[in-house]
């Protein structure tokens, strides 16, 4: 049914949009703080593994966009669009260098017959990484990349849902330290900023969410899917990266847990959710 | 005091009797100002005629017109009406001509015609409401076209009546006589055409209610009927049992909607507005599936469809389509390719901006719903609609502290703050400690966050005082409805909403669920009228089409895109607009004038003695300043430690019993808890006074009509209450602040107090929650209103006295004298007033005893203290028994004297009587110079008791006494159920003895007790609160 996404259908998806990473990523990708150099080959391997899980293990139809060397951050497709049900909002990324990422995204989303909305207001900025959809409502982090106007447009686009704003100060994105780990379950990092944001979200919401607190903020970004015949599926950071956080995830007995290493992209602030857009096409209209 | 009480009781009885019998009212009315009389007469005639369509329309316009005239003010008595009549007369003929014979404009003729029309309409009625609508529309059109002349159209009937009355010009002298004659005439007419109609002398007004399906319901109401009467009738008409989720709206203008308070007289609420209401969902059930009946869900669906089409409830494209498809399924049944051609959908409106694409989607989805019954389709509709983020959110425009435009959304869970479409904050009810408004500011006091120590108060600026008050009321009601736990009390279908006005007096959601569980009837059959209407139009029935066309035409003014239903509703609104243009300006002017005059620089004083918030009335008028001196002295005397009482507070306090002031918190709490209804009461009281004392009529009339301008102001000087009165009457932006105190445990002391209060809760056992807070809030809100209201009468009556004394005297004693006088006046007022309906009473008697302070305590109480708790209990029970006895007596005839437990040694005795339902208040205050130890007895009671008592002695159904005890509190509850004349009445008396050291916050405890009492019996009204307090001033004075 096309009804509003409740708890039950949350995480359902049929398609995923990903994008290959350009070599320019290593040198030109935006990053919050300097880290080690990105091993492109390894980054690619990790990404392929990631895509492979979506495609083969989970059976999604993966639409893979080619890399664009002029868009070093283009692998992080999440920031370019927000898709909820049948509607897709093409964002206006906060980083000017990323604005063109939406062009390819628009094409692919339209090919899926989604109701595509573009954010044309030049005063608006929005990164998909600042948008947390819980199944019941949206939280939009107001960060360096996302402003109020961008959030307003998101609210206008997804009228069914409450859209609450959450100040994000210490991190790149709202989802740099949190994500949905299941229906009604928010994975949240342990940093002060993360906890503060969680409190804000809890206050702003009419719903009560369970929370899964993990020691590492980065590990709190995980990818939840609800796959027929597999049930709850959670892609989370590998124990090699965040052993303590991985232990927390391992307590989720109802979830099919898939550890994913994301070492290289992490260096350029990439997280698990960043690298795909999940779409649920229930019917071909 | 006792004597006074007795008198009150009698009065109440009379009042009750009066209500049923219009005859009694007559004399009163006669005494009342000419204007009132006229209006009544007109209304009566209208009622008699009872032609639904014309009257309703006419009424609105006439009222608006009236306003300006009143606004003009001084001349209000007769002249305005006369003038109006003239203008109206022109209009009338047209309308009449349309419908029937072009008879004379005489009232009688009119009446005759009207009944005929009515009959016709009725005959055609149910099925063909649309015709009536068309008629209305036509009329409306006329009005629109000739706005100036025609405003009278709708009112034509009234106008005519008025004319008649005027013509005789015997008005004042023979008013009663005239009325009777007129009434008789009408009655005769009625007899001819509508033999069933009401007795001669009942003064009725025709009400029109726009229903959710777009049809209009009209009925004749007694002029003085309370909102509940109309609401019940509408619900009866709709065959709706789960009615607590619904309410009636009336519009001040196109976008200012007000909920009709069931516990108040309609007339007082709508003032000069037309008797035109809109049936509307008031509390959107968060989970519609928990509604018991399909018919209830159906009405909710209708409401939501309106909300969606009007844009109030934003939806995505997909949701619009989905909801639309369920609508089709519910109204048309399974998709039938043959019957449902490509156009079938265009008759429906699913969204503010409906596109072909959307319609296609709707059709597509409709096909998938095959097999769903209408009820199932409705349920699916609701299941999806309820998830919408703006479902059930009542939005109010406001600005934040920085002047940024925001929206405040009140919903089941709390208060939402939006900036543009973004939710920027949210305050769940449990987090809100206090809700208040002052002038155009709205405040919430928020519980400190986890790591914070202090609660914070957040203020919002609303467009005007009225808006702030509206928001506040909505908050109070929502909080109460959704947060309150239902009392254990058996659900009573009939006694929904009695109580003081400002708090929510209806059932809570929990209660209404409980009640609806008891619904035992086969699922009522009902037609989904909107579909019916639409299908008709589909069939090509010209009528239907015309309807829509007309509707659209009319609605064009208001809102273009709205659905048919909406259009009609809006028509109502727009009609008002159309009709009133000429008139409206004057009204506004008047208001402005008021505002200016009333504008007070008042300061708000928040008393922080306890967690309970004392609201501060802001009234800073020059007048007030004058009185400041006297007030300040009062302060010295009574509130020694009070930091810096400000005039406004003072006035409040002054009004409130002095002892209360001394006690400070308690008194305030009490007021908050139960004084609210006063405003309306004031009116009643005023009327009563008029009746009783013709001489004073002038004064009173003056205040009414002009309120703020003349007499009222004088009164204002003396007290805030006056100001409040003004508010009600003229809506001037006076800084009346009403506060809802949501008490939750904050500090140790408070906790103690709560403990004291818990016995009450013990009954509920585990139910106690944060929700308990809600009750308090409601109570507090009421109290404020009541305060205002109550005191007004005093002012008016004793204006002169008060002025003189207060101004002259700065001595507390003199003040006391004044108060005493006031009391007398009040009493008289009460006597005069004859309207009182008391269905349910909850009596809470609280006694707080402080050990060691018992110097002047009542012997009994002393003994309590000394004796073991068990003994205490027993004694209490005994006392209760006594009380009960009293109550029963009361019920029969005598006014309860429980209050008067005034004890011999009483140093300070204060009597405050507040009538919630009745809206009358008595306050008597006597004070003696402060002694270290004092005993105070404060009684708040509402005339209702008397009134109810006044009637026939009821048949005692059951009686039970429950006693519970906690550490510092003993509660004895006595429940008596009686049946009188088919109306069952349940009275609950509680005696709560709070014992403890000075550490105990008695005020808190009292407030808690009251709150709990209300919480437990949300659908009951507190009729009386007796507070007997023995304290050591030194310790307890918190000044």
TrEMBL record, chain A:
Sequence positions that bind substrate: 30, 73, 78-79, 98, 145, 268
Organism of origin: Alligator mississippiensis
Keyword set includes Transmembrane helix: no
Entry annotation: catalytic residues: 173, 274
Any one GO cellular component localisation term in the record: mitochondrion
Coiled-coil regions listed: none
Keywords noted in UniProt: Hydrolase
One Pfam assignment: ADI
Listed InterPro entries: DDAH-like
Origin: domain of life: Eukaryota
Name of the molecule in the record: N(G),N(G)-dimethylarginine dimethylaminohydrolase 1
Gene Ontology terms: biological process: arginine metabolic process; citrulline metabolic process; positive regulation of nitric oxide biosynthetic process
Gene Ontology terms, MF aspect: amino acid binding; dimethylargininase activity
Keyword Glycoprotein: no
SUPFAM superfamilies: Pentein
Family statement drawn from the similarity comment of this UniProt entry: Belongs to the DDAH family.
